[in-house]
Amino acid sequence: MKIFIKRIVAIVMCIALLIQTGCWDQKIYERIGFILQMGLELDQNEKLVYTVSVPVVGPDIQAKVEIFTTSRNLLRESREQVRHVSGKAIEGGKTQHIYFSKPLAQKGIHQFLEIFIRHTENPLLANIIVVDGSPKEMMEFSAKFETKPRPASYVNDLLVNARQNSYIPETRIYDFSVMGYSKTIDPITPMVRYNEKEIEVAGTALFSGDKMVGQVNTATTGMLLALMGGQRKIQYTYHEKNKQQDPDKIKEGAAVLIKGTKRKIKINIDGKAPQIDIKLNFKASLDEYDEAHNMDDPAAKKKLEGAIAQSMREDCLKLLKYLQEVGSDPLGIGEMVRAKHNTYWKSVEWKDVYKEAAFNVDVKLVFEFHGAIN
């Protein structure tokens, strides 16, 4: 009986050795330098420049981050080169932001993202950001900001606050990759600019496929996100175009906060070019307006609602025309045509047809709140 028990114990121990994880591949955090930011750009010779930002931790170290730069053809090769000059094992599993310069984004960025999809240790939640300037220079400047948090945290807070006000879109690695593989919805990404004192959100980079083809500012981004659908808070500023010239009048126009959006799109393919009708219903609060508008008067309230709605309609049509000119379809009109009119989709070259499509936009705006001043 004792021999039998010993055999059972031996068998259990052997099984445990087989199924338990070992420590051959353990990574000690104190010896690892985590990449929080990565910048990619082209130098004057069109060679890829790879820059990473690694936080510095130590009792006698004043610097917040350490910047490493190298120039190699592959991201893995660049990382290995950085490891040659770093006192820690550089890993990319905590990367929060990936910056692309505009010239590089215009050539296409999908080829640089495939490594994140293939290797499970890499994060798919990193933000994709286009920099108006040099990512390397921006990262070097931000490392010296005395009144800001660590650069990665500073940029993260900047993006979160800007997204809440619809100044920029939210685009992660998985967002860009999914749209890249779908080939029917073009991605968009945040754009930032910088100087020696701060980083600023600049608007939205527009893509056709994985190549950047245009850009819009933060104000126009709000209308773009409204056209794309979804419940977002959008700031909109209205300026009267036919106002009477009064030298003593400084304040004019109105500022509204859109709190609810309903979008409906109808596509007609019977004509020579597709006819696309977009209806937008906005519910908003009137945050600021000049004294010429008496909101206690229902007629005056309705007139201002109509005027702002017309201004929004004109802005949307202008934006849609620009999207057609640069060949970017972030609204996913192509996806709707493919899903609902598949025979027609297969019979045309959509990228060419999209530029000839006729858009019509109908906007309705209702003020739910305009202040408590009597």
Description:
It is a single chain. This protein is of the alpha/beta class and about 375 residues long. The protein folds into 2 domains: about 30-215, no CATH class; about 230-240 and about 250-374, Nutrient germinant receptor protein C, domain 3 (GMP Synthetase, Chain A, domain 3, 2-Layer Sandwich), CATH 3.30.300.210. Helix content is about 35%, strand content about 30%. Strands 4-3-2-6-7-8-9-10 form an 8-stranded mixed sheet, with helices on both faces. It has a 4-stranded mixed sheet with strand order 11-12-13-14, with helices on one face. α4 packs across α7 (about 175-180) and α8 (about 220-230) crosses α9.
Oligomeric composition of the shown chains: single chain
Radius of gyration: 27 Å
**End-to-end CA span:** 95 Å
Order of helices and strands: HEEEEHEEHHEHHHEEEHEEEHHHHE
The domain tally reads: 2
**Can you count the beta strands?**
14
What share of the residues lie within helices? 25-40%
How many alpha or pi helices? 12
Strand content: 25-35%
- Secondary-structure-derived class: alpha/beta
| Average pLDDT figure | 83
Shape: globular
For the largest beta-sheet, the strand count, sense and barrel status come to:
8 strands, mixed
The stretches of 5 or more residues where confidence is low (pLDDT under 50) are none
